[in-house]
Write a structure and sequence with these properties.
By secondary structure, the protein is α/β, with parallel strands linked by helices. It contains 17 helices and nine strands. Helix 1 (about 5-15) packs antiparallel against helix 6 (about 120-130) and helix 4 (about 75-90) packs across helix 6. The longest helix is centred in the last third of the chain and has 31 residues, at about 455-485.
Length: about 475
Amino acid sequence: MSVRTTVKSIQDLMRQDSGVDGDAQRISQLCWMFFLKIIDDQDQELELIQPGYESPIPDEFQWRNWAADREGDTGDTLLAFINSEMFPALKALPNAGSQGSRARVVRSVFEDAYNYMKSGHLLRQVVNKIDEVDFNDLSERQHFGDIYEQILNDLQSAGNAGEYYTPRAVTAFMVDRIDPHPGEVLFDPACGTGGFLTCALRHMRDRYVKRAEDEQTMQAALRAVEKKPLPHMLAVTNMLLHGVEDPSFLRHDNTLARPYISWGQSDRVDIVLTNPPFGGREEDGIESNFPAHFRTRETADLFLALIIRLLKTDGRAAVVLPDGSLFGEGVKTRLKEHLMEECNLHTIVRLPNSVFKPYASIGTNLLFFEKGAPTRDIWFYEHQVPVGQKAYSMTRPIRIEHFQPCIDWWGGKNREGREETPQAWRVTAEAVKARGYNLDIKNPHAVADDHGDPAELLETLNAAEGETARLRDQLKAILAEALAR
């Protein structure tokens, strides 16, 4: 049976269980089970190649010892084992010992995990299906990785859970333009389900990882934080699935809860790749962690302030921000001024409103900047929906090849050779300052739609309204005559 067929049959089984309500719960349930299977497969491989390696999971809770037996416990016995023994034990794993960091990963996943399934018989069937996937088989793991991406994509229809998912074409494009190398410290302060991290891993493995030492150097330089439990669990599982041996670098925390001034030189990073939550508000008190002139409860603004601080000199960033961050005033103006003084904001790629549908239908932008020199010129590039397509949608989403015109235009390593085109234009920093740091600059090459002569349009409207009034009076007369009979 193919991996895709296996996953579909698992989802069908879970839909029969009265305890699993909706996409978000089903995905959460799938995640902790996949996590245990993946980490156990990885543990067995490490036991073979690393003398003395011991799994952080106690023997009785390792997948191989309770789940792999297809004729093992089922029904109420299985439910009691999972709910009363395994979950409490994994939530309380100690940090000490040779596998302390790996134990922290397991504990962090299970701290907010929950077994939603109420039927132990259905649960056994799901366990048996998951056991069919061998995550040490490279081809199966890669195939499952594609399916896992689709599972994450399904979050877009799970209420507000879509905020955790950035279209993979967007993350792949941003990573390609930033071009991370092994050893460069790469940070995503609001990593969601880990999309930027997985794209960065693929990018570096395809281009730069040639030896085992390169792989170790790459993994050791990853940093990430996720505030919410479900995406954190999904992200950790995603890291294991993508061959990361120790995903303890991915912390379950709120990046903004740490005082701004406490981020020192040792915390500086080479690269920031992120899509910070926007449109949301932080809880009371978070803004007090920031300097008075940056204080706001708008999450995206606080993240932008922190990203500028966290970058090393010559560090580079690619950040997704909504249109509101470009034209907003007050704190937003001060942030944009600070950004342009501290960093070279060299490129803004403007995306159509439909890229993030159905979660969000507002305009978004990809900001690319480098710290260490002030901004002199900003290049804007207007990404357009493919010809013959009105908008992006869940059935016709944005794909990486849709970014190819922008990649072709981008220029060399230092962006030399750029030219103005119908989709690209340059604006000086002085012009932006004269606009009060309003970066919501429309494409000057776009031809405005010709809606006709205003006087003629008004005359047509008046005539239509007159005809409407005449028909209304006629209808009233007909009704009055009918009622009088």
